[in-house]
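User: structure tokens for this one?
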Amino acid sequence: MASEIHLSLSAKQKRFMLAKEKHIAYGGARGGGKSWAVRVKAMLLALRYPGIKVLIVRRTYTELDNNHIQPMLNLLAGIAKYNKQEKRFIFPNGSFIQFGYCDNTADMMRYQGAEFDVIFLDEATNLEEEWIKMFQACIRGVNDFPKRCYYTCNPGGVSHGYIKRLFVDRRFERGEKPEDYTFIQAKVTDNPALMRAQPEYKERLEALPPKLRAAWLEGSWNIFEGQFFEDFIDDPEHYKDRKLTHVIDPFRPDPAWPVYRSFDWGYNRPFSCGWWTVDRDGVIYRIAELYGVMHDGTATLANQGVKWPPERVFAEIQRTEREHPYLAGHEITGVADPAIWDAEMGTSIAETAAAYSVFFSRGDNRRIPGWMQCHYRLMFDEEGYPQMYVFNTCRDFIRTIPTLQYDEHRVEDLDTAGEDHAADEWRYFCMSRPIRPAAPEEEYNPRFASDPLNLYGRR
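Assistant:
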């Protein structure tokens, strides 16, 4: 069986089968044969290591059944027995391949205390980052079997940013070792079986609109289906010249430029406070931030708040404004979500802020006009300069903005299930000083130089 499989593998699939790092990601585009590779690698591990415990995970049981269980019933006929109640294939040598699904936190809790040697997270970007980390914690044991986590993935999904950081950008946090991570990009052309059976599939991908084609055919991780702020660009090559990027190197702003504070309250979810300055041309700069997200000592726990009481939040904001070199000595104007003036439970959050000399005006929290103001700021002019910049020290703004997606039901709005707290306070600030979108210049046509009936304009 193993020799027959080996002969049918592409070069990328062979790399996936032979990789020995602790964390191995495979995919990055549509049609790369990811699920097939998961099935084959899981079976080879079970056959090679007697007693090894393997888990394959998808978001829903239907996906598991269609993509793995049914195909493997044919592949393993006469080789392993399937226990439907336990959802696992059991091999004569004592190995087993378990199937699991995780569509919510309650599903995830079923794996607490479980032990596996190898876990496959198929379509990993569709799983919450918190769930991925909990599955990683299930990989343990005192035996000599390989201890690995395999991830198949396409650009997009709720964990796009997390997977991209580790495997594409290769930006690691404390406790993450670069040598433990490898990414094998597989495109449709790396799936010989599909190319033989459906050569027209590649043509269908080539016919997609440019942005979908970039993600699905070319495997671009900077553009993905549903990305709300696909116009937000982070290009380190232009941090210094500030062209065609929104993220730049920090600099000390002109002391004459006004400074602003925008705020979004959070307790179970992160709070977000951003500080902005505005130059003489009206360009805004996010120069500092305070973001209340939980850390487990080694990594950021996405969208989990630090659960600070309001008194601690505003004491820290006050201290930051007193000590930060870009903020100290400035009179700072604040804007915040009107919800902080809600006093149903006694003292409002706005009143607590005022007790620490942190003052806000009520923000305009209309969503669609607010998001349009954000998009207007991101637009580049003919020379490649936008109307806003973000200092590269504002890490949580840079981390969260590219991950936000459109709402499935209200297509013009942002999906509030994402980590949208920095985006919300950015929106309040933009709405406090709205601008018009840059209007493209109309091509002059002498034929319509005199147009009293506005025929040219109407056309």
